[in-house]
């Protein structure tokens, strides 16, 4: 057999020797387990329990199986270690009809900044909200003012302005559902999401 | 068709074009880069660094000593192990409605995923392709390895 025939034959042999594509469903950080649908020309395999696996090769339907935490760490430890930290979010509260943080929330700022410091190339998204007192337009502006006030504080504490995005949601996304025109301190807030 | 309707349709068409023109919106940001990691973008090969943005149509390639982690705009987390190649076929995310699409192809190596708001909001809006299969993601954390030995 000459090299011209041998090389493609070898490549075919190697391809045939390669293992199947392997899929493993894991419990998330809160212990919850989602679902994965693995499909190809051979059919569909649903994974819906912790450490359920599917092995898929060629056009054959994926084969269901099971593994365990120890085996997963052995086989996927490097890739799992490279997952970025999970995003975290904080809620800060404001005094009525202002963009001034309550004393309790103001006291939280250094802790939030310390948490931000743990994230590589941290990004922050601040979304302001209001209670239902006042018009839509008024609250859209107030909610954005609240988000911007948090942004100013973070910048004053030394955080890079280009990595903070702000948005105002007015009275659309209430923490505590109320009728219109109701004062509710828990709705006067900003969500600070760090990732 | 009256002029008002025509005008509306034209405006809608134009805004659709404008929306597709902003396809270079940031999809994600590198948070972890170990060893050799590069991004193939429009014919160029760029070394990946922590803080670097990732866009739709990018391909991410890790060397035999490489691994990388990316946080996406919908809060999804993805990481690649050594000797891996991932194409970001499609990424779109509406921060107000949480509608979107998140489609990748892993052609070699290992991938870990924690899905985000796109998968949470809409069934099968997140997909991962491998040489043998298509994964429809309904949450949350999972691993994929292409043709291991």
Key features of this structure:
heterodimer, A: 195 residues, alpha+beta, 60s Ribosomal Protein L30, Chain: A, 2 domains, 3-stranded antiparallel sheet, B: 149 residues, 2 helices
| Count of distinct strands of chain B | 12
- Termini Cα gap of chain B: 63 Å
Helix content of chain B: 10-25%
**What is the largest interface, and how many residues per chain?**
A-B, 48 and 47 residues
Number of domains as seen in the coordinates of chain A: 2
- Spans of chain A of 5+ residues with little confidence (pLDDT < 50)? none
Which percent band covers the strand fraction of chain A? 15-25%
Helix content, binned percent of chain A = 25-40%
Give the second-level CATH assignment, the architecture of the largest domain in chain A. Answer: 2-Layer Sandwich
Concise account of the structure shown:
The complex is a heterodimer of chains A (195) and B (149). Chain A has 195 residues and is an alpha+beta fold.
Describe the structure.
The complex is a heterodimer of chains A (195) and B (149). Chain A is built from 4 helices and 9 strands, in the order αβββββαβαβαββ. Chain A has helices at residues 3-17, 69-81, 103-116, 136-156; strands at 21-26, 36-40, 43-47, 52-56, 63-66, 88-93, 124-128, 164-168, 189-194. In chain A, strands 6-9-7-8 form a 4-stranded mixed β-sheet. Chain B has one domain. In chain B, β2 (37-41) and β3 form a beta hairpin. Classes of the chains: A alpha+beta (195), B alpha+beta (149).
């Amino acid at each position: 057999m000459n090299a011209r025939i041998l090389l493609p034959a070898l490549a075919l042999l190697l391809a045939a020797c390669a293992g199947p594509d392997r899929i493993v469903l894991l419990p998330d950080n809160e212990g919850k387990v989602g679902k994965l649908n693995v499909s190809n020309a051979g059919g569909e395999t649903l994974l819906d329990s912790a450490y359920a696996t599917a092995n898929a090769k060629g056009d054959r339907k994926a084969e269901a199986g099971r593994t365990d935490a120890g085996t997963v760490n052995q086989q996927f430890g490097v890739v799992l270690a490279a997952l970025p930290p999970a995003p975290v979010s904080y809620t800060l509260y404001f005094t009525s009809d202002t963009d001034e943080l309550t004393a309790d929330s103001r006291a939280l700022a250094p802790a939030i900044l310390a948490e931000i410091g743990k994230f590589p190339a941290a990004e922050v998204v601040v979304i302001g909200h209001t209670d239902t007192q006042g018009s839509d337009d008024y609250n859209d502006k107030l909610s954005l003012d609240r988000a911007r006030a948090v942004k100013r504080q973070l910048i004053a504490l030394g955080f890079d302005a280009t990595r903070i995005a702000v948005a105002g949601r007015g009275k659309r996304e209430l923490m505590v559902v109320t009728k219109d025109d109701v004062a509710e301190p828990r709705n006067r807030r900003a969500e600070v999401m760090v990732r | 068709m009256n002029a008002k309707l025509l005008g509306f349709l034209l405006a809608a068409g134009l805004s659709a074009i404008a929306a597709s023109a902003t396809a270079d919106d940031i999809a994600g940001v590198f948070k972890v880069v170990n060893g050799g990691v590069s991004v193939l973008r429009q014919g160029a090969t760029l070394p990946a660094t922590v803080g670097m943005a990732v866009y739709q149509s990018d391909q991410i390639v890790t060397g035999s000593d490489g691994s990388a982690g990316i946080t996406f705009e919908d809060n999804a987390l993805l990481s690649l192990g050594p000797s891996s190649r991932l194409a970001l076929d499609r990424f779109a995310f509406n921060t107000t409605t949480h509608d979107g699409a998140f489609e990748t192809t892993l052609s070699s190596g290992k991938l870990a995923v924690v899905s985000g708001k796109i998968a949470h909001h809409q069934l099968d809006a997140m997909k991962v392709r491998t040489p043998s299969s298509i994964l429809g993601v309904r949450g949350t954390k999972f691993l994929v390895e292409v043709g291991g030995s």
